[in-house]
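Our preliminary data section would be incomplete without showing what the modeling component actually yields. Below, a chain of 1011 amino acids is followed by its predicted structure, encoded as tokens that our downstream tools consume directly.
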Amino acid sequence: MKSISRIAIILSSLLPLVASAAPATLPVRTPKYAPKTKRTLHSDEQIALARRNVAKYPAARAIADATIKSADKWVDWKDDDLTFLLTPPDVPRAFAVSASGCPVCGKKIKEKGGDYAWIIDPKQPYKVKCPIDGTVFPSNDYQSYYRSGFTEKKNWDGKYVDDGWGWADPKTGEKFWFVAYYNHWIWHKYLVPGLGDLADAYLLTGDKKYAHKAAVMLHRIAEVYPGMDHAKQSRYGQMMAARGADYPGKVVNAIWETGLAQHVCDAYDAVWETIDGDEELQRETHQTGAQIRCVIEANFLENAIDAYFSGKIRGNFGMHQGCLVHLALVRQTGENDKWFDGLMNASSSDHAMLGLNFALYDLVYRDGVPSETSPGYNFLWVNKIAAYGDQLQHAGRDVFGIPKTKRLFDAVLDQVNVGKFTPDLGDAGGVYGYLEGKDANTFQTAYRYYKDPRYAAWLARLGATGDNTFKTFESLFSSPIDAPAEVKLPPAKSRLQDGAGLAILNNPSDTVSLSLEYGQHHGHGHYDRLGFELFANDQPIMPDLGYPDAMNDFVPGIYTWSKNTISHNTVVVDGQRQQGVGPGEVKFFADSPLARVIDVDATDTYPQCSVYRRAIIQVDVDESRSYFVDIFTVAGGQQHDYSLHGPPGEFEMIGGNWSEPAKGTLAGEDVPLGRIYDDPKMAAKDYQGGFSQYAGSGFQHLFNVRTQQEGGWVAQFKHEKDLHAMLRIRVLDQPAQQVMLCDAHVSPGRYPQVLKYLIARRKGDDLKSRFVSVIEPFKDKPFITSLKRLKTDHDDDIVKLEIQRGKEIDTITYNPTHWILPTPFGAWKPDVVVTRVPTGRNNFFALSTTDPDRSITGEVKEALPMTGIVRVELPTAVRSSASDTLVGRVIHFSNARHRTAHTIATAKIEANNLVLTLDDDILVGVAKLDKVEVQQLHTSTALPLYPSYRGTTLTDELFHASLLVDHVDHDGNIKLLKKLPDDHSIKAGDRVWLMDVGVGDRAEIPFIMSN
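Predicted structure:
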């Protein structure tokens, strides 16, 4: 260390490569740790294996060829031209030009490609071109201004002059950040990826021409990196600062910096061995190889490590952790044991900094779904944990031995609908659907650790096994995946991810499915609890709208429409978006060969509602076709708006007498499209703030409003991408219900396609509504010929429908208040009954959660969280053969504070004991205690899933104590239902667990009858 301290890294002496651009005064840094002594990310053996793979397998050769071709684009660049593009902190950065689009073509550019549609070219520095009309901005010569050390101003009298901090439109005051946009994307899209290609090409070929160019770029990055501060040097940082907020980062924002820093870090490791022999670089920098390495290790690697701990490198969970692992391994001689122990075991009030042993339970639901709601963002967690977990595993930290880790991979596959689509939950996907989990590297890692045949089948589907294993550069360093040739994914079934709050109804042939969301609300979620998405005929036939225009607090349409309740297939109460964050509670869930049902009450969604409950019944017509009965009950408030929409494509309203399209929007004839009308502050012309707190209706996005005057009707849709894929929706009448047909754009900015919305509205004091619809996906020809509602003795409580399809008649009864009803098997209290005539195979389905003579009920006597085993004592002995029928069924556990649902993985009967293994975790949270009081415990461990902890069981680290939790609040106060016993041993500093199933809970398996 003494020799290192003598190497003063005075940045002002490192200017020969800056090509006449004088950087700002930058920090001076001395290395904290001993010099790096070897390459650490890839061993000589791995590099040799990669080269053998390239020589042997065409798929590997293709990756190598593409990498080398990309690297060759940079080899001919002069060194000083490369460093000229790697700007100092003086040049601002911006990931978007403006919220208004283009000064000439307006929002047309956003419709074409969103915020990132502008064309840039490394050979045309600091210019951006509009892809719509070809206009080039700015009008001044910023390149000469930069090269002159920010003194020489050429063409400064043009129309669109940008000094780096944007051009302001003289009419509106709106700023357009042309230079900053170029600078951001030249770093993010061209230079850093180019650096990675150069380093990768060197690893594959050993050709030092690639290493030299990479080292030139690394040295320049190390010069400027310490002074980078995104909060003070960017468009968005300036906008957030005006609101008194911070938008941290280094070259780019803190989230994207995780990738940038990791790529630069990896490149240094790859070419590290060449720097001492790179005489050309040493001449250009006037430094020895050792000095150059010290510059990079201190100014970049160590500065980036500091940025990690100061929050300037911080992304979605797994992103910054993976970056730190790379930085630590490449820096090699730092405090790796301390840093890695923190990555595994840190208990933090910042959920983003929790160690894995906490995060896998406090941030991930019991079914393995991370808590960001969006499958796309959730998969980032899976992808990153798999990648850095693999590296930590080799460093002696057992990531894949944690029981919860495997559930991350399982949960991705469990969300797939009809084999093709992942639900577009929150900020994910779009109206045409998408499939998450197609990253071969992630599931190759999972398969290598777990050898799960389902992972092998998924990889085979991706074409990522055997000779085709190689899909990414990193895959070149491993041997091919040798999966069994006959392996196939098991047939999908109806299923619950009750921790995350997702139910999927699925016909046996996996051709029709519906996903219903009822979980907690988190940052990348939308306000769409009890919203659903329907998949049929290989299309999302009732799609979610998917990812909004952008993730930008200053764009109103994101929050007034895309994330708002009205744009989803659910119910809006009192013209407001949903308020509550807590999850819904499954009342019942059941499957049969004929029909299946999910019923969820999410009362916490609106504080004024005593009931906010949706039941959806799927009834099969034949092996490939199904229809749905949707029953949505709302009690409370003064206005209920039931919103349904179909896919993009053709629309026909069959029947009914409808008004002409009204002026204005659903918000009123005097409210134009998109104008905020129900938040005076945000509606003000001079409002400069963000829109994420908008809680209004979003009705201003629905236009061409037509109102039903009289007569029966059927709404019919044809999907834009397949006109044979069709849909019919019928909304049944109820007293004082008004039905409206509206148009709406998929999004206000980027996606102009128009969707047809059906809005059924009721108004009144202390309102109670029950919306009922029949939803019929079909191909070419509809199969439902008639529909009517049947009278019962309890019409206020019971929904009974008769649906005719040619010669067959289905009768569907929904009985949530449990009246005694006649059935073909006697009178009892079924929740749902589906019967079909004429009789035949699969002609009856009934479900009861309330009949004590038919349901299996008992008390939990033992819960073993590490194995997932629960022992339930039953009142009387049950036939041992009955256990065969329980696997795959849902069991409910309840106590005075909650009711939860789990799927049974295995079951056996031992006298009057039912011994079960559950398909998901019993453990749902873990915390380190700061303070213990008589009836309340306090923790600073981040517990963002706190709304779901009501009614859980708290136990000590060894699972000895068993204390019922009343609730947990967002400040980490754990309120117990009863006082701690006098002989308790729980104390500050202890680690405690929260269990979803506890001793004393009531267990119930609903009775299902079907044939």
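The first strand starts at residue 128 and ends at 129. DSSP finds 21 helices and 41 strands in the chain. Preliminary results of this kind motivate Aim 1 of the renewal.
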